[in-house]
Design brief:
By secondary structure, the chain is mainly β. The chain has one helix and 13 strands. The strands form two sheets. Strands 1, 2, 4, 5, 7, 10 and 13 form a seven-stranded antiparallel beta sheet that branches. Strands 3-6-12-8-9-11 form a six-stranded antiparallel beta sheet, covered by helices on one side.
Length: 235
C-alpha cells in the first residue's frame, strides 16, 4: 500500500493539462494534472487505503472545473501516486510510471504543488498541516530506501475552500535543502549524497494532512478534493 502511515493508498484518478519542455541543456519543465471533460488517468492519485473509501472525478466544483474527490476514514488522510517499482506485488494495478515519479534531477524539478480542499474533516487537531512525502524503494531489501518529508507550518483550524500548497524541492541541490527531513529506511538520518540519490529515483509522491512523528485520532469520515497537481522547474 502506498501510504498507510508507511504503506500504499487506494482511491484516485487524474487528468492531464499542461506540459512544456524545451530542448536545452537544462530544459524548463512544467506539468499540471487537472480534471476536465477529457480527463485521463495520468498520475492515478489514490487516497489512503481504508475499508471505507470512495473516489470519483467530479465535473464541477474544482479550482476551477472538475476535481478528484475522495472519502476515507483514516487518522492520516493522504493523496499519493507511486511507480511500479514501489512495493511490488501490492496493489500493482494502482501504480503508474507517470511524470510525477522517476528522475527529478534530470528534469531539474524545483517545485511540486497541489490545490487541496477539506470538505469535511474526520478529526482536525491544531498540530495538523500539509506534508509532501517523497520515497524511494529498495528492491534488494524489499523496503523503503529513502524518505524525504517537508511539512508546512501548523494549520490550527480546518482550511476553508480550495487552498494552494507549494513545496520547493530543488532536485539539483548538492545538499539537503532547508526544511526537508531525509531519513534512510532504517530510520537513520540521510546524507547530502542520499538526497542526490533520491532525486534521481522518486518512487512515491504524496500530499498528506499530517506531520511526521505525530499521532492523530481517527474519529470520523474525511471528504477531500485535489486539483491542479503540478511539478516543474522554477523559471
Amino acid at each position: 500500500m502506498l501510504i498507510r502511515s508507511s504503506h500504499w493508498l487506494a482511491a484516485g484518478a487524474v487528468a492531464v493539462a499542461g506540459y512544456t519542455a524545451y530542448a536545452q541543456s537544462k530544459p524548463d519543465y512544467e506539468f499540471t494534472e487537472r480534471y476536465g471533460p477529457r480527463t485521463q488517468d495520468i498520475g492515478h492519485w489514490t487516497l489512503t487505503d481504508n475499508p471505507l473509501r470512495v473516489r470519483m472525478i467530479e465535473p464541477s466544483g474544482g479550482n476551477p472545473g472538475g476535481y478528484l474527490y475522495g472519502e476515507v476514514s483514516s487518522p492520516i488522510p493522504t493523496w499519493s501516486t507511486a511507480s511500479t517499482r514501489y512495493q511490488p506485488g501490492v496493489d500493482d494495478a494502482d501504480k503508474r510510471d507517470s511524470v510525477f515519479v522517476g528522475d527529478y534531477a534530470v528534469r531539474a524539478i524545483n517545485h511540486v504543488s497541489a490545490d487541496l480542499e477539506v470538505l469535511q474533516a474526520g478529526s482536525w487537531t491544531p498540530g495538523r498541516t500539509v506534508t509532501l512525502d517523497l520515497r524511494q524503494w529498495d528492491a534488494a531489501t524489499d523496503s523503503i530506501a529513502l524518505e524525504a518529508t517537508f511539512s508546512l507550518p501548523d494549520i490550527p483550524d480546518v482550511p476553508q475552500g480550495w487552498q494552494h500548497y507549494d513545496f520547493a524541492v530543488d532536485a539539483g541541490s548538492a545538499k539537503i535543502p532547508p526544511g526537508w527531513v531525509l531519513t534512510r529506511g532504517d530510520g537513520t538520518p540521510g546524507t547530502n549524497a542520499d538526497w542526490a540519490t533520491l532525486m534521481h529515483q522518486v518512487d512515491l509522491v504524496a500530499f498528506g494532512f499530517w506531520r511526521p512523528g505525530f499521532e492523530y485520532p481517527s474519529l470520523g469520515l474525511w471528504k477531500l478534493g485535489i486539483d491542479n497537481i503540478h511539478l516543474g522547474t522554477v523559471q
